[in-house]
Amino acid sequence: MLPLISVAPHRRAWVIGLLLVVGVLVGSAVWYVRSAAATGTAADDANGVNILLGLADSAMHDGRLVAPEGSNAYEFYFSVLQLEPHNEVALDNLKKAFVPACNEVERLINPTDLDEAQRELSLLREYDATNYTLALLGGKLSAQRMLVTRQHEAQAALIQAQQEAAGAH
Q1: Each residue of 86-132: pLDDT tens digit?
Q2: Is residue 148 very low, low, confident or very high in pLDDT (cuts 50, 70, 90)?
Q3: Considering only CA atoms, which of 91, 19, 108 is closest in space to residue 49?
């Protein structure tokens, strides 16, 4: 029995050593999988940002600053900023496009495309809610809405007067 006792401590040492090696391998595998997933997510975000910046640049080149809805430079740059809040390219290009975009909104207010003008004005307010030019455009839009309402009321009164005159004859 004496030879068995002297072999048992060596087996225990081998078993403990083997368990340690297996533990290290499992821990390494878990770490590798997690780091690969994190790297993949960062690469996907960078790729998504590059795609959005390309779409935004195309929209800027085509003059689609705030319209059409869903396919304009401002919306693409805002999407970039959701992924990378401090993206300098997006912030700089939003700043460059601001005045021309305001001019576009003003052109829409004049011919009474008021709903689209409101949508575009709201989009610009997401960029700079306290801008004085946007406040002026908002006032102009409200005044134009009141003017259109008065025109509709005058037309309705005219139609009603015509109907009453036709009914009296």
Answers
A1: 999 999 999 999 999 999 999 989 866 899 999 999 999 999 999 99
A2: very high
A3: 91
- This prediction has a pTM of 0.66
Instruction: Tell me the CA end-to-end span of the chain in Å, nearest whole number.
Output: 131
CA gap 38, 32 in Å, rounded: 10
Burial call 88-109: b when 16+ CB within 10 Å, e when fewer? eebbebbeebbeebbebbbebb
The 3-class SS string of 14-78 reads HHHHHHHHHHHHHHHHHHHHHHHHHHHHHHHHHHHHHHHHHHHHHHHHHCCCCCCCCCCHHHHHH
Cβ contacts of 126 within 8 Å, gap of 6 or more: 74, 78
Tokens coding 49:
């940002």
CB proximity list for 72: less than 8 A, separation 6 or greater: 59, 64, 65, 66, 123
